[in-house]
């Protein structure tokens, strides 16, 4: 019965099948390894980031095609400000170029270009481009692409607590008990399901302050491949591995 919905992907001699009945609703990716990819090729780090932007295109398109509802991409963390100014400037420029160059195709494909994180600290042109991209695509019906920018899981939780305190003090929220549902409505990911699958390429196996609240029951998938080399084949591999996992959410079968 289920095979009817299975999609076949052929890569070299390997045949892998995606169960279209069990596509993760929310995939989150830590796009790691740009610098090492560049180093391996004797290129400047900035070229690695440029190649990293290129890698995004096919992944968004494929997530949209197979019916992933949310795709969260970790593009700049609250800790990335520690990097040299030149690298930060390049990343900000790449962000603007990405939004300008890819906008039409993303919009035509029905992608919602959303952002999460405290973007007030980004250069003003980045903020404007992000807000405009969101305004123009917010009613689209395809995958919601969350660009995580100046994002940190701890910051997000602290922000949520502070906003909640403010709302309680000003009687906007009247409650004696704070439950998970109320708290989640103060997070950047308000209204979104938690990530089912978190992918981290580049050989590192840590969470790096990414979606700390939301990853409570996420499935993790790691690979040694550097982000610029990550393609649809690896995405399918990650999803197929995810589909083999037995998710019990702390319960029993
Ligand atoms: C990690 O690689 C990557 C980042 C800190 C930035 C990710 C950014 C992009 C893919 C491009 C910008 C995104 C958009 C949406 C325009 P790293 O530099 O830490 O690599 P390394 O660990 O090998 O040094």
Please tally the β strands and state the result. Answer: 8
CATH architecture term = 3-Layer(aba) Sandwich
Order of helices and strands: EEEHHEHEHEHHEEH
Radius of gyration: 19 Å
InterPro entries: UPP_synth-like, UPP_synth-like_CS, UPP_synth-like_sf
Enzyme class: transferase
GO molecular function: ditrans,polycis-undecaprenyl-diphosphate synthase [(2E,6E)-farnesyl-diphosphate specific] activity
Organism: Clostridium simiarum
Indicate the topology.
Layout lengths: L5 E6 L2 E6 L6 E5 L3 H7 L4 H22 L3 E8 L7 H24 L3 E5 L7 H14 L6 E8 L1 H17 L10 H5 L12 E4 L18 E4 L9 H13 L9
Parallel strand pairs: 3-4, 3-7, 4-6, 5-6, 7-8
Antiparallel strand pairs: 1-2
The protein binds farnesyl diphosphate.
Farnesyl diphosphate binds next to helix 1, helix 2 and helix 3.
GO molecular function: ditrans,polycis-undecaprenyl-diphosphate synthase [(2E,6E)-farnesyl-diphosphate specific] activity
Family: Belongs to the UPP synthase family.
Subunit structure: Homodimer.
Task: Explain the overall architecture.
With 253 residues, the chain is α/β, with parallel strands linked by helices. Helix content is 40%, strand content 18%. It contains seven helices and eight strands. Strands 5-6-4-3-7-8 form a six-stranded parallel β-sheet, sandwiched between helices. The protein has a two-stranded antiparallel ribbon with strand order 1-2. The longest helix is centred in the middle third of the chain and has 24 residues. The N terminus is likely disordered. Bound molecules: farnesyl diphosphate (FPP). The site of farnesyl diphosphate (FPP) has 18 residues, from α1, α2 and α3. Catalyzes the condensation of isopentenyl diphosphate (IPP) with allylic pyrophosphates generating different type of terpenoids. This is Isoprenyl transferase. It holds the Pfam family Prenyltransf. Keywords: Magnesium, Metal-binding, Transferase.
């Amino acid at each position: 019965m289920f095979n009817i919905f299975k999609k076949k992907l052929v890569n070299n001699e390997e045949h892998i099948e995606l169960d279209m009945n069990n596509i993760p609703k929310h995939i989150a990716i830590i796009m790691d390894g740009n610098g090492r990819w560049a180093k391996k090729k004797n290129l400047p780090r900035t070229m690695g980031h440029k190649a990293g932007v290129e890698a995004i295109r096919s992944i968004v398109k494929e997530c949209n095609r197979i019916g992933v509802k949310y795709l969260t991409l970790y593009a700049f963390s609250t800790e990335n400000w520690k990097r040299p100014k030149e690298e930060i400037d390049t990343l900000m420029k790449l962000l603007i170029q990405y939004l300008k160059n890819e906008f039409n195709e993303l919009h035509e494909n029905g992608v919602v270009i959303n952002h999460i994180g405290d973007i007030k600290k980004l250069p003003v042109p980045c903020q404007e481009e992000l807000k405009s991209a969101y305004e123009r695509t917010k009613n689209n019906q395809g995958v919601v692409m969350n660009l995580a920018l100046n994002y940190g899981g701890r910051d997000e939780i602290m922000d949520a607590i502070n906003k909640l305190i403010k709302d309680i003090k000003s009687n906007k929220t009247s409650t004696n008990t704070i439950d998970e549902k109320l708290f989640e409505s103060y997070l950047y990911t308000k209204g979104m399901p938690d990530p089912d699958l978190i992918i981290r390429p580049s050989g590192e196996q840590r969470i790096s302050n990414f979606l700390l609240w939301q990853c409570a029951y996420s499935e993790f998938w790691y690979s040694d491949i550097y982000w610029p080399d990550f393609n649809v084949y690896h995405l399918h591999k990650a999803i197929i591995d995810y589909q083999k996992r037995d998710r019990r959410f702390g319960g029993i079968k």
